[in-house]
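In the design runs reported in the main text, the only information available to the sequence generator was the tokenized backbone. The following block is the verbatim input for one such run; it is reproduced so that readers can re-run the procedure and compare outputs position by position.
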């Protein structure tokens, strides 16, 4: 019998050619300038206060690479690329040490969210199916084998110089860091806006 799948959940990923070691040093300078940081989804880790494109020129090459790839997200969703474009909204740094993690959450009012990994880590980012769907699936009968149709969650590894991007409304979390090394990432939100009209006169 034929099988079609609809209402798919996109996740984009890529390996970047960025100086991750320089960004590592930037992240530590940012933490030294504000040791308290900001508490949002992190449990025991450090998150910077949010900042914006242009606030830290050291990150401009990275953010430009992310924005360039966000055009693919816009295209894959079928949006009008002639009249609309993506732009970088807020950005922040995450530093998780041993046993630190990030609770399940979503990013409101954005189009695409993502993470760039400054370091390698065994603590993966996890994405979750809608709870009502999963409850319905699991309450009918025992599942003998997990697959893309029935899985309650899926995960991506945190690999140095890799980028993961996903719809902002997709629930996600970060596993507890089981290693006594820092797990450093840069998170961001991307929005859509109408392009400014060019004066042809």
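Verbatim output:
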């Amino acid at each position: 019998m034929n099988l079609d799948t609809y209402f798919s959940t996109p996740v984009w990923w890529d390996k970047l050619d960025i100086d991750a070691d320089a960004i590592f040093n930037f992240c530590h300078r940012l933490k030294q300038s504000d040791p308290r940081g900001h508490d949002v989804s992190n449990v025991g880790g450090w998150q910077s206060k949010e900042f914006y494109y242009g606030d830290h020129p050291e990150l401009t090459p990275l953010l430009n690479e992310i924005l360039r790839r966000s055009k693919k997200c816009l295209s894959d969703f079928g949006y009008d690329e002639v009249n609309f474009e993506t732009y970088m909204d807020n950005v922040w740094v995450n530093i998780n040490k041993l046993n630190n993690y990030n609770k399940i959450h979503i990013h409101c009012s954005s189009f695409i969210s993502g993470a760039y990994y400054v370091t390698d880590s065994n603590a993966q980012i996890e994405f979750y199916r809608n709870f009502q769907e999963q409850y319905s699936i699991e309450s009918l009968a025992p599942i003998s084998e997990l697959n893309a149709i029935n899985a309650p969650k899926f995960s991506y590894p945190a690999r140095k110089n890799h980028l993961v991007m996903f719809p902002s409304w997709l629930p996600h979390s970060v596993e507890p860091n089981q290693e006594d090394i820092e797990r450093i990432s840069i998170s961001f939100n991307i929005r859509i806006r109408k392009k400014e009209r060019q004066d042809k006169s």
